[in-house]
Amino acid sequence: MGTRIGVIIAAYNGAAFLPATLEGVLAQVHVDLECVVVDDGSRDETARVAAAFAARDRRVRVLTQANAGAPAAYNRGLRETNGAELVALLDQDDVWEPGALAALASRLSAEPAAVAAHGLARFIDAGGRPTAPPPFAADMLERWTVVAGRARRVPDAPLTTLSTLLIANCIATPGAALLRRDALTRAGGLDPERYIADWDLWLRLAAIGPFAFVGEPVIAYRVHDSGMSAREGPMRREADLVWRRAMARAAAEPAHAATVRAVWRFTEARLARRRLAWAREALAHGRVLDAARQLRHAAVSAVAKLAPARGLRGLTDGPVA
Asked: 212 in the Ramachandran plot: left (φ > 0), alpha (ψ -120 to 50) or beta?
């Protein structure tokens, strides 16, 4: 059966989707697993649904707690699966492909230096039907990394590095990754204060070592109105905070300083190009003031690209977790 895998599902009011998620866990082939469902103070039938699965399959256990958020629920599940060398954090509405854990575990076995392995996702709607990928899905395929001080597109690279994850979060959902517990312990687990706790964790893990990449879908990511990915405004603000803090941490490490400077230059140059495109679009629709504002922002980004040292000093303003 091989190495034991601990699966943690953080569940909150997830009764509608949890059965399909748990069926996907129990359908995993060629792996030895235990699954802990942490009911995070749900007000629906989540606990009852999970308990029904636990009654039929001894690999499933259910824990309940007062509502504390998904990161805290995942951390509790991690403590309860301390006999597992590999761990997976699975959202309550996503569904693994039957061979997902076996494929991820195989890649980890082939890459001893990797702290985790991750694969791609396909996308389904609330009813489980295939649906169009959301905009962020492009990050999974247009992976970048820093080579000799320059950012390069590496869609088929066997490893995902810190620079790749600083340029964009190419791991669509927590369940697309399988983690080594010892690396997760070194990284400090999930931060309960973070709204985008998975990307924050990936960045701390990638500062320790690379992720092995599986270039095929391992999970069906459910896109629906109640999902966290639907909350665009808060997600953007949190993403900026997570990125800035990760950049500041990496800039303080001599081994990562050159990478951070290259990521900074690439990010500002890309932002300048996007703002120029937005300015052209605004002009095409007669929105002159909007176009002028975007041109001004594009100029700021173009100047910032040429002065990474000054910009990186600004990243350390305020506390860095």
From this structure: beta
